[in-house]
């Protein structure tokens, strides 16, 4: 996968509305690369301005922390909470409530 895949990731993430989240794996599936969740993560680490990176979380409904500054995790959570997303005491987002269903065909 290459830069054009990253561009497709960014285009899809820009469609996620405020108050909704999407998982790395979900993005990979939508883009036709069901094993590409890790690559989606790499893309999100270098997301350009204007991409709502904070709306991408892991499949457990948590903010992924591996390799990220703890301040970035707190910032991502604050941005999501400002959009009305509620976290459980364990730091999870209820995907049944907040998960974006994806782009319309």
Strand order of the largest sheet: 1-2
What's the CATH H-level homologous superfamily? Winged helix-like DNA-binding domain superfamily/Winged helix DNA-binding domain
Proportion of β residues? under 5%
| Average pLDDT level | 92
The helicity comes to 40-55%
CATH architecture: Orthogonal Bundle
Largest sheet: 2 strands, parallel
What's the alpha carbon Rg, rounded to whole Å? Answer: 13 Å
Describe the overall structure.
There is one protein chain. The protein has a two-stranded parallel ribbon with strand order 1-2. With 105 residues, the protein is mostly helical. The protein has one domain: Winged helix-like DNA-binding domain superfamily/Winged helix DNA-binding domain (Arc Repressor Mutant, subunit A, Orthogonal Bundle), CATH 1.10.10.10. The chain is built from five helices and two strands, in the order H-E-H-H-E-H-H. The mean pLDDT is 92.
Please outline what is shown here:
By secondary structure, the protein is mostly helical. It has five helices and two strands. Helix 1 crosses helix 3.
What's the layout of helices and strands?
Layout: H1 3-13, E1 22-23, H2 24-30, H3 37-45, E2 56-57, H4 70-82, H5 95-98
Parallel strand pairs: 1-2
Helix pairs in contact: 1-3, 2-3
Salient structural properties:
105 residues, Arc Repressor Mutant, subunit A, two-stranded parallel sheet, mainly alpha
């Amino acid at each position: 996968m290459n830069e054009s895949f990253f561009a497709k990731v960014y285009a899809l993430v820009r469609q996620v509305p405020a108050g909704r989240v999407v998982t790395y794996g979900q993005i990979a599936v939508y883009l036709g690369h069901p094993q590409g969740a890790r690559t989606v993560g790499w893309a999100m680490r270098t997301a350009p301005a204007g991409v709502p990176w904070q709306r991408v979380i892991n499949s457990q409904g948590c903010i992924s922390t591996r390799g990220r500054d703890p301040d970035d995790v707190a910032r991502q959570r604050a941005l999501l909470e400002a959009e009305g997303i509620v976290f459980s005491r364990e730091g999870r987002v209820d995907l049944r409530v907040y998960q974006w269903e994806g782009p319309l065909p």
